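We emphasize that the prediction below concerns an isolated chain of 89 residues; any contacts that depend on oligomerization or on bound cofactors are therefore not represented. The input was used exactly as deposited, without trimming of termini.
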Amino acid sequence: MPIFSIFAIYFIIWWLTLFIVLPIGLRTQAEENEVVPGSVESAPARFRALRVFLLTSVLAAIIHFAWYILSVRLGYGLDAIPQFAPKFY
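Result of the prediction step, given as a token string:
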């Protein structure tokens, strides 16, 4: 597998993992009772970007490593998933 493909798949996994990690540990301004004028109440009180990006990178690396082992080394792919729905054609 070309190295560019490996990085492209990691980036896709990282981007999807980012949206999973973003709400973890989030405290809104309404929960903190410190709503800044001109912002919505659901805005984060303190956005911890470094924490979010590090956690996203670690989780994406674990998921990417599992995907790499299963698909490239062991040969499992989408065709290996059993088809549970009946075929109507």
